[in-house]
From TrEMBL:
Origin: domain of life: Archaea
Region described as Disordered: spans on this chain: 1-21
Protein name, per record: ArsR family transcriptional regulator
Organism: Natrarchaeobius chitinivorans
Pfam families per UniProt: DUF7342 (PF24033)
Amino acid sequence: MTGDESTADEGCRERQTTGEDRVRMVARQLSEPRTANWIASEAGWSHEPTRRVLERLVDDGILHRDDSGTHTTYYPDYRRQALQEAMRLRDGGYTVEELTDRLAEMKAQIREWKGAFDVESPNQLRGTLTDDTLDATEEDRRREVAREWEQLQRRIRIVGFAIREWDFLAPTTEPAEASS
């Protein structure tokens, strides 16, 4: 794709979504707390309307606000995200066997990294970056593996939950009965 095509695609996307839509999309995909300025920049919208949308998302329980640091940050309800992802896995046409196989693959990848780098965690792997014998390429590789490792750990928890709660997560066409 040429630069002109990329710009045209971005322009088309921006015309098809409102600034509020883009802020909501960015906010729902957060994997760590971010400031309103960061979210506004990612959404391609100005700060003040972004902040108003974020506050509405906080009021609706979709986001949490943290005022304890030097800057106010926003982050999603990670439990809600995990439950929604587990439901997507359940509804996504996978079988419980396929998810179990995927879970085994992810765990095998982590065991491989543990053996290859002789560490037990992503942070221990990051700690190896102090080794003066590593070149820049190897340092970059280890940082990337640490990020992937953390992502796999999150995925393992979600996939494991989806497997354990397979029956509970099954879509239902019957309305829930109110208990008396």
